[in-house]
Structures are given as C-alpha cells and as structure tokens.
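Posted in: Structural Biology > Protein-Ligand Complexes

Title: Requesting predicted complex, magnesium ion in pocket

I'd be grateful if someone could produce the 3D structure tokens for the following input. Sequence and ligand are given below.
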Amino acid sequence: ISLANQIAAGEVIERPASVVKELVENCLDAKATEITVDIEQGGRRRIRVRDNGAGIPKDELALALSRHATSKISSLADLEAIQSLGFRGEALASISSVSRLTLTAKTQQQEQAWQAWVEGRDMQAELAPATHPDGTTVDVQDLFFNTPARRKFLRTDKTEFNHIDEVLRRIALARFDVRFNLVHNGKSVRQYQAVHSPESYLQRVSQVCGKTFTDTAVALEQQAGPVHLWGWVAPAQSCRHQADVQYFYVNGRMMRDRLLGHAVRQAYADTLGDDRVPTFVLYLQLPAQDVDVNVHPAKHEVRFHQARQIHDFVLQAIRQALQSAAV
Ligand code: ADP
Ligand code: MG
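-- Reply #1 --
Done. Output follows.
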C-alpha cells in the first residue's frame, strides 16, 4: 500500500502547488465559504489549508487519510496502467505518504475537534482531541522529506510560491462566492473577498488579475441555444504582465484547450492584428452531454461533440466584443 501511495503521489503531487490544489478542492467539496492557505518557504517547509466547511467526523478521520479504493498497483510493472486512471479518493493518502500530515477537524454536531496525523510510510493514523472551530485544517509539513529524488526537483521558494499563487488564482476565478486568503511566511499576501452578484464579479477579477486587465477589459456575453459564453476580453496592447491573464473555464473547470485557444487567437488576429497577446477571463457553459472532460486530474483537456460549432461560436463572440471595444 505504501508503494502504491508513493507512486500515486508521484503522479498527482509534483510540487507544493499540487498539494494546495488538492486541499483547496477538498475545502470546496466540503462547502467552505472561507479558505486560508498558509505556507512557509514556498510551501516546501509547510502548507496549511484551513476551511470553515463541513468538517470530518471523528470516526472518519483515519479513513480520510487512507486510500478508499483497493490498491490498483501491486508492482512497478503496473505503473503504466495507472497513468490513465484518475486518483480520486487518494489525494490525502498520496500527500500523507510523502509528508508529515496532520488533519484537524470539527463538525457542527461534535462538541470536540479531533486530530489525526501520519508521517510518511507509517499509514497508521493516531487520534487525539484538539481545538478547532467548525471546519477542517490540513497541515502538510516537509513535503517529499522521504523522497529525496522528488525533493530535488523543487525550485526556489519564489518559484514554488508563484505556482501556488497561480493555482489559487485559477480556483478564485471559478468560485466568486468563496473568500480566499493566502499567507506566505506569516504575511498575508492575497485576499480575495467573496462576491455574490454578477455586477460585482469584476471586483474579484480585478483582485485576481490586476487592474491593468480590468481597466481595459470589455464584457462579453453570448448565448446560442443551450451554449452560453460570458466573461471579459481585453483589447489593449498587452504588456508582459497582462499576458498571464488567460483563463478559460468550461462548465466551471479551467481548461487549456487547443480548439478554444485557436478560436481566441483567431478572434484577436482578425480584429486587432497579430501582435496582440490575448488576455481574457471567459466562461463557457454547455450541456454536460455535449462535452467530455478528461478525468485525469493533471490534464485540462476537453472534447466537444460539436467542435466546429463551438469553435465558431467562441470566435464570433470574441470578435464582436473586441470590435465593439474598438469603436
Ligand atoms: P476525494 O476528495 O477524492 O474524496 P481526498 O483524499 O482528497 O479524496 O479526501 C478524502 C476524504 O477526506 C474526502 O472524501 C472527504 O470526505 C474528506 N475530506 C478531505 N478534506 C476535507 C475537508 N477540507 N473538509 C471536509 N472533508 C474533507
Ligand atoms: Mg480530494
């Protein structure tokens, strides 16, 4: 089981930012409305994620840290097979197999918070009473302390921090209704306030993407049957800073898709010429049966059943928005 965990961890948990992604997604699954990511040394020393969500009942703490699925790998030879599978239900187990992990939680029904911890290969979770408000804190220390080969691939604190910052930006643009805080080495570095009405969404976009983007961005909204595209595109000549603002969400999930990327580039080229770097925050909603989203957690690919129509719809919508901004 330990071998399996460490192999799985290698697939999903590549760096501190992957830990943050998994932990924050768990907070969202638990219906948290406020999430604090508190890291030290770019997350290499410590990653602590706290939420005010549903918590984990005392008798489920140990289970949460174990792989729920029966192990799919019995030898390294099976490694190839596992690459095509997701690792659902395995994130905490994977992280705990390559770190010193403490899980503290309290549900509304419980009087008392409880804490469980595991360290590296020792998958036996210990339980102790603790102090914690309703919700969950996962504290991950010394990532890859027992896998030196992986630890070697970590970059500087600054680089690892930047990856975490980006993970949080992507999630924050998908969940306007949740408040996010990022603390680095004891200093609060990001605060994304929750916004609840579409008129206020631009405030969140501004906090996440910067005023340089929102000052020049134009709103876009187009509907074609059940397919809906909305968001913002910036027509201004881009500077390097702005070039990072390229976010496309399909049914709430951030995607880096060839087809969509092409449609966006084409729209910019048609309207403004080739020298513009597209900057955008866009949301495409369409019926779930019209799209296949790759289940691999590390991939951001999507397959549209009517690829041509989607491409042209996106192209036309962005073109129109950019043209209206130009007049
Ligand atoms: P998955 O999210 O795929 O179920 P994980 O390993 O990420 O697998 O988490 C295991 C389980 O631990 C979750 O299914 C959930 O029950 C519980 N859990 C993890 N994080 C939290 C959290 N922040 N709040 C509430 N429950 C959590
Ligand atoms: Mg999870």
